């Protein structure tokens, strides 16, 4: 972090211009360079809040890289805590943190992070949850609560009921606990989405049957947070998580999506967000062409993009990945 400590503000501004010219948010070296650069700029120009905003943006990218590329959830958690130290009202950082703790099975911490995300009131749009994210934050508040409750029920199951039930007050409490709360059974742990709009929960057996890559249809299969595979007529390719998020959003909106809609969800500090989006779409098209070069899976329409998979398609997620689409904000 001390690599820029000897530079003047004017020299750093020249370096900043060159750094933006090389913009590539998929490159961890570019991200780390920017973190060092904007830390130095913020020290020399403490009144410029824009430097803090870019640092927060880069920290989110760095956290996503650690989580997705390195599978290093613990390091990513530290990065998101740093963002919250910079911006305590950043609801989206707490939202990210909630998912990280959920994957780590830290249910109480996940619950707290999602609660903070849902109840923060930031003044900047880039820090706020979208309407969809707000719903998902509340969903995971309930999901974590259910898991925590089930753990309590499991502990209560080991208690000496007969001895406890001699106390009438405890007997009433035990009856309420046992009868008033449904166990956390996961008999249908997968979500299937048909043609982007018809949602249903399915069992492991149904998942294996309906996600067979040899079926005559396009299949989007988010096997885990870090592993998304798409297939068509027996051919399959792996899609990087960031590109998969865009693809998923297009497939869930089969009537088309505007560029500005996607860009607003990205909430980037990018100097040229449209160019960054075009780059992602180009990479996606190259990946999908490996399935069938004759099909234009993603069409360019006036002001945006349209999913055009050529018939029926299915999408699959495990319940732990539900609600994680478009993790780019």
From TrEMBL:
**A single BP term in Gene Ontology:** regulation of DNA-templated transcription
Instruction: Give the InterPro entries listed for this entry.
Output: OmpR/PhoB-type_DNA-bd (IPR001867), Sig_transdc_resp-reg_C-effctor (IPR016032), TPR-like_helical_dom_sf (IPR011990), TPR_rpt (IPR019734), WH-like_DNA-bd_sf (IPR036388)
In terms of superkingdom, the source organism counts as: Bacteria
Query: Which GO MF terms does the UniProt record name?
Result: DNA binding
| Residue stretches making up the OmpR/PhoB-type domain | 234-307
**Keywords recorded for this protein, A-Z:** DNA-binding, TPR repeat, Transcription, Transcription regulation
Methyltransferase as UniProt keyword: no
**TPR repeats mapped onto the chain:** 91-124
The name under which this protein is listed is OmpR/PhoB-type domain-containing protein
Q: Which organism is it from?
A: Alkalihalophilus pseudofirmus (strain ATCC BAA-2126 / JCM 17055 / OF4) (Bacillus pseudofirmus)
């Amino acid at each position: 972090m001390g690599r820029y400590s000897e530079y003047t503000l004017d020299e750093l501004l020249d370096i900043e211009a060159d750094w933006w010219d090389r913009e590539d948010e998929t490159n961890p070296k570019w991200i780390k360079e920017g973190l060092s650069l904007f830390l130095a700029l913020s020290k020399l120009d403490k009144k410029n809040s824009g430097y803090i905003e870019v640092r927060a943006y880069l920290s989110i990218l760095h956290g996503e890289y650690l989580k997705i590329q390195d599978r290093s959830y613990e390091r990513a958690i530290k990065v998101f805590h740093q963002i919250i130290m910079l911006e305590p009202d950043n609801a989206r950082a707490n939202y990210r943190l909630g998912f990280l703790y959920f994957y780590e099975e830290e249910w109480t911490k996940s619950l707290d992070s999602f609660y903070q995300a849902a109840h923060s009131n930031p003044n900047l749009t880039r820090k706020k949850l979208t309407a969809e994210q707000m719903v998902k934050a509340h969903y995971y508040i309930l999901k974590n609560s259910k898991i925590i409750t089930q753990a309590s029920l499991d502990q209560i199951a080991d208690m000496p009921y007969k001895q406890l039930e001699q106390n009438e007050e405890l007997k009433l409490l035990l009856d309420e606990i046992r009868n008033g709360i449904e166990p956390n059974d996961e008999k249908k742990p997968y979500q299937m989405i048909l043609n982007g709009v018809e949602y249903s929960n399915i069992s492991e057996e149904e998942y294996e049957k309906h996600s067979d890559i040899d079926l005559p249809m396009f299949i989007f299969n988010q096997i885990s947070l870090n592993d998304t595979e798409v297939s068509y007529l027996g051919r399959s390719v792996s899609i990087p998580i960031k590109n998969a998020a865009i693809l998923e959003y297009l497939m869930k909106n089969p009537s088309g999506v505007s560029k500005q809609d996607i860009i607003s969800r990205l909430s980037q500090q990018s100097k040229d967000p449209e160019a960054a989006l075009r780059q992602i779409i180009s990479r996606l098209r190259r990946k999908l062409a490996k399935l069938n070069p004759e099909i234009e899976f993603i069409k360019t329409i006036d002001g945006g993009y349209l999913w055009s998979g050529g018939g029926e398609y299915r999408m699959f997620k495990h319940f732990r990945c539900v609600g994680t689409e478009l993790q780019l904000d």
